[in-house]
């Protein structure tokens, strides 16, 4: 329950609905018991067992409550009978109907109020999870499966919702139904009720023994569901590769293995859970059977209990069975919910490694330079960047070149603070990026990546990611700068055309130009271009390169280049090898040296 208690905080905004549910459940349990008791006068009239009393009984104290209640009921029925038998029957029938009607009204109200509570908790929990998912650093998802995160936001949250309903029933409605019924049973016959108390602990022990391993089995099912969703997400994302390499069979086997495991785990879990209801019902029937035997002797042999009261007593005893079954099922549900809560809290309680410092400032402008001062960085054990230093003056274009794995993209990730350096510092105008808020840092930066990351939205919707209040004129101007207006204007609905999942209705060059237009619309003073033209054909590269040159005018740019022909006009070309600078200078200067850069240019010209 320790994980579940932490989830309860999400119910606080909806506490009024919780109290209304509790109040409704109290009346539901009360009228449920009174509905059974109301059958007693009906039975006495039907069997003509009503004791005729012409004088109103007198109250003599709480010790004679049972006799006083029975005598007063007999007196009232006698008075009604004097007016006619039909009147008595109609009154008794109306009494029974009224009790059952009130029971069901309050039962509906209890469910009505808990609906707002359940769905409110569901909404807030998903909102919090999504917010946390977005807030966590990029590094978190390089270690986790995306499908597992999706499973926690969907399946696990639904499990919490169902468990939340169960716990309110467990602590309010069902226990009160049992309590009121037992009080009424004690009132009718304390001796007979002792048998109920003998069997309840035995039943509880057996049901508890069945459910001990439920949490671990539930956790196993939920983990497999995470893997299952992750595999599905990877399949849809890589469908072209799967088909291109005829790997459908390989991925089907992986998927089938996952569903086989899920089949086995889910069967074990549900069979264990389904055992709760028949077990509790069977134990309840044994209790009823013992009561029938012992109570029957009290009616027929000892004659210490009249038959009408015994029938009401048996109805009350049977009424305990349904809430007892519900409690056993709810306890299982709570164990499953606790496993789901643990998985959800593992996300919510994850501390982000990248956080704003307590005294972080909001930096609003860029006036001098970006300075990278003796930084060291590693993802795992090996250093990706070692004692790396670089100055990027305002208004200049610095290009980073080198073989794959030399640390170029890592540098872009560090400047944008997707990761934090292990040693050294990165400053903007002399202020360490760790000393400014992440929001203000990223407001200074525009990012264009090698993979054009677009969303299943319109052209305008994708660009407004950079500037939510941009007008249509602003969007069109940005598209023109990025050489994208030419093709966007020919789309069926122009900037209001949906471009599909990941922009797949567009070509690679078109997607990249939209990415550039998005960066242009943001209009930041610093641009980070991470191999923005490496995946394009010659024609698209020419259009994109032209768009990049227009965008970089009067801006400070850090360009990570794969195709060296695109960075010949850079103010400073930095050549990296294994995380260290081996050369730097202008294009012609580096060619004249005939060093590493010269070799890279030669290799590309031969290719």
Could you characterize what this model shows?
There is one protein chain. The chain has 607 residues and is α/β, with parallel strands linked by helices. It folds into three domains: 2-348, Up-down Bundle (ABC transporter transmembrane region fold); 357-444 and 527-539 and 558-607, P-loop containing nucleotide triphosphate hydrolases (Rossmann fold), CATH 3.40.50.300; 452-523, P-loop containing nucleotide triphosphate hydrolases (Rossmann fold), CATH 3.40.50. The chain is 63% helix and 10% strand. The protein has helices spanning 2-7, 15-37, 39-46, 65-83, 85-135, 138-143, 146-188, 190-211, 214-237, 239-244, 248-274, 276-300, 307-348, 408-415, 438-443, 459-463, 472-481, 485-488, 508-522, 538-552, 587-593, 596-606, and strands spanning 369-378, 383-393, 397-402, 423-428, 431-432, 445-448, 526-530, 556-560, 572-577, 580-585. The strands form two sheets. It has a six-stranded mixed β-sheet with strand order 6-7-8-3-9-10, sandwiched between helices. A four-stranded antiparallel β-sheet has the order 2-1-4-5, covered by helices on one side. Strand 4 (423-428) and strand 5 form a beta hairpin. The longest helix has 51 residues, at 85-135. The radius of gyration is 37 Å and the shape is elongated. 33% of the residues are buried.
What general form does the structure show?
elongated
Biggest sheet strand order reads 6-7-8-3-9-10
Radius of gyration: 37 Å
- Total helices: the number is 22
Low-confidence stretches: none
Derived from helix and strand composition plus strand pairing, the structural class reads: alpha/beta
* CATH superfamily placement of the largest domain: ABC transporter type 1, transmembrane domain
Name the CATH class of the largest domain: Mainly Alpha
CATH architecture descriptor text of the largest domain: Up-down Bundle
| Largest beta-sheet characterization | 6 strands, mixed
């Amino acid at each position: 329950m320790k994980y579940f208690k932490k989830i309860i905080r999400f119910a606080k905004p909806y506490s009024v609905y919780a109290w209304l549910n509790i109040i409704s459940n109290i009346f539901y349990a009360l009228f449920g018991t009174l509905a059974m008791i109301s059958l007693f006068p009906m039975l006495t009239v039907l069997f003509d067992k009503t004791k005729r009393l012409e004088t109103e009984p007198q109250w003599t104290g709480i010790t004679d409550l049972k006799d006083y209640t029975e005598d007063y009921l007999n007196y009232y029925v006698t008075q009604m009978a004097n007016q006619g038998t039909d009147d008595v029957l109609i009154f008794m029938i109306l009494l029974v109907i009224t009790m059952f009607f009130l029971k069901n009204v309050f039962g509906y109200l209890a469910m009505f109020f808990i609906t707002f509570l359940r769905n409110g908790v569901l909404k807030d929990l998903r909102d919090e999870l999504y917010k946390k998912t977005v807030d966590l650093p990029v590094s978190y998802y390089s270690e986790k499966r995306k499908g597992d995160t999706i499973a926690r936001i969907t399946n696990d949250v639904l499990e919490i919702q169902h468990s939340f309903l169960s716990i309110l029933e467990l602590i309010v409605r069902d226990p009160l139904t049992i309590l009121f019924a037992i009080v009424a049973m004690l009132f009718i016959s304390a001796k007979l009720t002792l048998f109920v108390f003998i069997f309840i602990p035995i039943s509880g022990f057996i049901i508890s023994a069945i459910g001990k391993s439920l949490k671990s089995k539930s956790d196993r099912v939920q983990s497999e569901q995470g893997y299952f969703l992750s595999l599905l997400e990877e399949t849809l994302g890589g469908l072209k590769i799967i088909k291109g390499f005829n790997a459908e069979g390989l991925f089907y086997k992986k998927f089938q293995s996952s569903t086989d495991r899920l089949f086995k785990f889910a069967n074990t879990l549900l069979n264990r859970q389904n055992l709760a209801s028949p077990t509790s019902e069977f134990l309840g029937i044994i209790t009823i059977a013992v009561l029938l035997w012992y109570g029957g002797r009290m009616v027929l042999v000892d004659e210490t209990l009249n038959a009408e009261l015994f029938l009401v007593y048996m109805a009350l005893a049977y009424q305990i069975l349904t809430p007892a079954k519900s409690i056993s099922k709810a306890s299982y549900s709570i164990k499953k919910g606790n496993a789901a809560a643990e998985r959800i809290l593992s996300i919510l309680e994850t501390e982000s490694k990248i956080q704003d410092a307590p005294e972080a400032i909001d930096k609003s402008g860029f006036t001098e330079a970006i300075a990278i001062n003796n930084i060291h960085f590693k993802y795992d054990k090996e250093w990706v960047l070692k004692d790396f230093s670089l100055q990027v003056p305002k208004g200049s274009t610095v290009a980073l070149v080198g073989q794959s794995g030399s640390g170029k993209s890592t540098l872009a990730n560090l400047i944008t603070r997707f990761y934090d350096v292990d040693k050294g510092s990165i400053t903007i105008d002399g202020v360490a990026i760790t000393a400014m808020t992440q929001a203000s840092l990223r407001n200074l930066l525009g990012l264009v990546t090698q993979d054009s990351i677009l969303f299943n939205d319109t052209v305008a919707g994708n660009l407004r990611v950079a500037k939510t209040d941009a007008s249509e004129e602003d969007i069109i101007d940005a598209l023109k700068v990025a050489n994208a207006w030419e093709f966007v204007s020919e789309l069926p609905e122009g900037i209001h055309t949906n471009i599909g999942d990941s922009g797949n209705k567009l070509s690679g060059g078109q997607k990249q130009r939209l990415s550039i237009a998005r960066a242009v619309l943001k209009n930041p003073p610093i641009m980070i271009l991470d191999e923005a033209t490496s995946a394009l054909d010659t024609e698209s590269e020419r259009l994109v390169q032209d768009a990049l040159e227009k965008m970089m005018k009067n801006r400070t740019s850090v360009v990570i280049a794969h195709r060296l022909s695109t960075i010949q006009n850079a103010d400073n070309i930095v050549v990296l090898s294994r995380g260290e600078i081996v050369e730097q200078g202008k294009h012609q200067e580096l060619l004249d040296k005939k060093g590493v850069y010269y070799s890279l240019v030669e290799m590309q010209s031969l290719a």
